[in-house]
Design brief:
single chain, alpha+beta, Maf protein, 5-stranded mixed beta sheet, 4-stranded antiparallel beta sheet, 5 helices, flat, binds zinc ion
């Protein structure tokens, strides 16, 4: 029996474009599944590309930002391979509806001239903002949002954006009490504004999403293209239109996955893993309009 082929990136080093400890979520899947060892550069100024707390607004799209981070890490480290991620949070966390979290994870290899992107969009539980008038309200907010595993930001309510004294990454109950009371004291409205700290290392829910994306990306890095042998073969897209079991109308359900290569552009369809050939009539626009 032949030994398993060596993954294309086995033994390679890549740099992680982060100051926020994301490497913790990515290190194990990248090493186990693709043989890649991750390095974190010192003093990477990714905050210049935008922050969650509003001190540095984001001006580019998420994809442009994640690509800029990867380039920055490559330039700073001299290592031609980088991994970068970018989270964005949509919806309004003040209205009580579930907000959406989109996370992008990009692999950029300047030696091979390829980029791989994995992404995921899902509802996020711990994303909320509340203004509080006293410590009891602050503690109740903290309890509902997974504190202290999830860290909080505290700001004085009613101060103009950007200039506020800002407590970030608060995880200690005594520090929370101090931050809330001092923000209430400096707020023109005598209220403190509490929000979840969305930076990955402060937000376990986001770290779990990153670890899942890291595993997906690592599997692709370990899979060579059947045509040109470049690493990165994997699912790129999906074809919807699974026919209705009763009338055959195309539904919005996935009919097949599209696998592809980022280097030579080869595309192949892969049938659904569950073997489903027809959609439930409940999902059919004709049978269940
Ligand atoms: Zn139908
Ligand atoms: Zn190829």
């Amino acid at each position: 029996m032949n030994p398993a082929p060596r993954p294309p990136y086995a033994g390679c080093v890549a740099v992680v474009a982060t100051r926020h400890g994301k490497a913790r979520a990515l290190r194990v899947p990248l090493r186990r599944l693709a043989g890649v060892r991750l390095r974190t550069p010192r003093d990477l100024a990714t905050d210049a590309l935008g922050t969650f707390c509003g001190s540095q607004p984001r001006t580019r799209s998420a994809l442009e930002t994640v690509r800029a981070k990867a380039r920055l890490a490559i330039a700073a480290s001299g290592i031609p391979r980088a991994l970068a991620s970018e989270g964005s949070f949509g919806g309004d966390p003040t209205c009580g509806l579930l907000a959406l979290h989109q996370e992008l994870l990009l692999w950029r290899d300047e030696a091979r001239g390829i980029e791989l992107l994995e992404s995921c969009t899902r509802p996020v539980r711990h994303h909320a903002v509340q203004e509080v008038a006293d410590l009891a309200q602050a503690r109740s907010f903290a309890r509902r949002h997974g504190f202290p595993a999830h860290a909080l930001c505290v700001q004085p309510a009613g101060l103009a954006g950007g200039a506020w004294p800002n407590w970030k990454g608060v995880r200690d109950p005594a520090l929370l009490a101090f931050a809330v009371e001092s923000c209430i004291a400096t707020s023109p409205q005598r209220r403190a504004r509490l929000l979840l700290d969305l930076r990955a290392h402060c937000h376990p829910e986001r770290m779990r999403v990153l670890a899942g994306l890291g595993a997906r990306l690592a599997r692709r890095l370990a899979t060579p293209c059947p045509e040109c042998a470049s690493p990165g073969w994997g699912v790129h897209d999906r074809r919807t239109g699974l026919p209705c079991a009763w009338c055959g109308t195309a539904t919005a359900q996935v009919a097949a996955w599209i696998e592809g290569c980022v280097a030579c552009g080869l595309r192949r369809e892969r049938p659904r893993a569950d073997g489903l050939r027809a959609a439930d009539p409940g999902d059919c626009p004709q049978c269940n309009p």
